Amino acid sequence: MSNAEALARYLNASKRAVVFTGAGISTESGIPDFRSPGGVWSKMKPIMFQDFVRSRDARNEAWSRVFNRTAGWTGAEPNAGHHAVTTLLNAGKVRAIITQNVDNLHQASGAPAKKVIELHGNAGYAKCLTCAERFELEDVEPRWRAGEDLTCGCGGLLKTATISFGQPMPEEQMARATREAEKCDLFLVLGSSLVVRPASGLPLIAKEGGAKLIIVNREPTDLDWCADLVLNTEIGPLMTETLALLA
Ligand code: ZN
Asked: 140 CA distance to ligand 1 centroid (A)?
């Protein structure tokens, strides 16, 4: 049986699948995996949340990375993997997408924003740290280039809507992700090494609830031992082939 046939067999038997995605699905769109050797964090130090809040220099450095596109998180196009997941979602086969990515590529491929649970936020826009009002990057970029320390009308600091190192996990998204993991009958991991806590606990929650666990990742993961199927392969070609085999 081919990889695609094996995956299609599980998807065909599932009624409430959930897809969990990590950096591996977006590297196929040219977005660097920031934790891997050669990734963004091996070239520049992450800015801790506490430093961002405390220091104007740290904020300036953070915005410089955003507007000079240093991190490479934005501006890429969704690939075959994102499109296949969106097809499954829109067909009702997948209930929700839980993602560790901040690149907005699930939404860019047509997934409704309310079906995408972003555990690490979204680098595509900014939010006020005090009142949570949303700001578009193209609206605030000229203000930053003019030398402003970016703030909201309420006086709060603006920051990209990502969850930085040192910043608490978003409670609502974690709660939603946990509920989806509990309720699903198939938990499909696409391109995550499953090492970042607390997100790495979600596959175990799904397994405890009786779901099948499938891990598709280029390298082995720490949770391969409890998976029903492990496929060490590229995501885009596999998912495209699998879609063609679904009932
Ligand atoms: Zn505000």
From this structure: 14
Please write the tens of the pLDDT for every residue from 64-115: 999 987 766 666 899 999 999 999 999 999 999 999 999 999 999 999 999 9
If you measure from the C-alpha of residue 153 to the centroid of ligand 1, how many angstroms do you get, rounded to a whole number? Answer: 6
CA of 139 to the centre of ligand 1 (A): 15
Q: Are 109 and 95 in contact (CB under 8 A)?
A: no
Catalytic residues: 120
Query: What fold characterizes domain 41-72+125-162?
Result: SIR2/SIRT2 'Small Domain' (3.30.1600)
Distance separating alpha carbons of residues 246 and 129, to the nearest angstrom: 44
